[in-house]
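Question (not urgent): is this output format expected?
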Amino acid sequence: MRSLSRLTTAGVLGAAALALLTGCLGSSDSGSGDQDANRNADAKKVELTFGSNSVKGGKSSAGATFVQDVLIPKFVADQKGKGVDVTVKFQGDGSDDEVYKQKLSLDLSNKSGPDLFQIDGIWVGEFAQANYIKPLTDTVGEAAKVDDWDGWKQIPESVQALGSYNGQRYGVPGGTDGRVLYFNKKLFQQAGLPADWQPKSWDDIISAGQALKKISGVTPIQINAGTAMGEATTMQGVLPLLVGTGATVNSDGKWLGNTSQLRQVLDFYHQVYSTGLGDPVLQREAKGRDKSFAEFAANKIGILLESDYFWRSVVEPKAGVAKMADRDTAVGWALIPASKPGAGVKGQDFVSMSGGGATVINPNTKFPQQAWEFLQFMNSAEMVKESLAGAAKITQRSDVNSEVLKSDPMLSFVAEKVLPITQYRPGRAEYPKVSAALQQATADVVGGKSTDAAATAYQKVVETAAGGKDKVTSN
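Got this back:
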């Protein structure tokens, strides 16, 4: 997952101001965002700009190449067939995510910026709160124009949440991912554990870990912890466990504080790292996550919680960063269980967390109807499939997934079993500080502090981040 850089406000605003002066981001300024959603609907000559934090030959090069060389030309040709002369300009960037976010925010606050742009899913709520973006039904007009798009039927409701806020759609989600428990089948066999292992509770994970502990030189369980791993600790550790207790980090507008559910999660960390089931030193190393990948590939870690990225990019036999020649036979995967059956969020037996981005429409665009047509076109089955360039990756569309993932059982598993039950991080401005506090709480427990001490310290930090006790839950 991407982590946001910490920059000084002055430095960020300086970069953003420079971007405006140099025209780094295009302008669709058309005055007030309260204009008629049908403005210029019948225009025969249309100019659109598409913004993305990607650039050919640089950051997210494949995405930039697809947009410029495939998507835009095909959309222009499609519109020409309808008698409309469309020009679409790509406004690529290659900045750190936080720098790009600030550039874009400054543009939008001045009612300018690209007509359409891609943002991280956790920015959607923050941008909506700031009125930088509006629900699609407001920007495009008439709910039917948005709700009747046939593409929604192919995007699971859980995935649609990636581009939504407060129950309203602000954009269309792009590709996503899902988290599972990976396990080493060779080590499982040595420990007398089943090759088709599927734990039904946290106790089942601990029991498997205890069996694996009997094998010399093996770390039974790797659950990311501490501050060195940054957002990886939150997404590959705290949040999947938290939703397994029935709670989310933000609910009804309040942030999770020192609750029984948080203490359950910290107790689990304590159980893993104080009993020798996990390696506490690994959680404090700057390259601890990379080292955990290498150790899993070297048959030294039994169970590891990660996203599908681990399967397709880490232990991938030919090009992975920690290649496993026997990946297809040696690596197993299982759903992440709730703390106990039925205890997960929404009463689920199994849970997961996902990430990804969304494409949204600037409410100040001169051409809202044409922008909506572009958004539908880019998220059609044909374009989503072409965006993969032959690679096997999980997309937002179930129909595309069923076709492009059919030869990959692990990715198919995520698409079919994980995405329908997954959750996403809350898109709120305070989230990065709350996430950092969660990371510190796990670091405290792994470092030897009691669950109560770690949870109490966490509560104080979150109250400050959230802006007061009344914005934090505790029990």
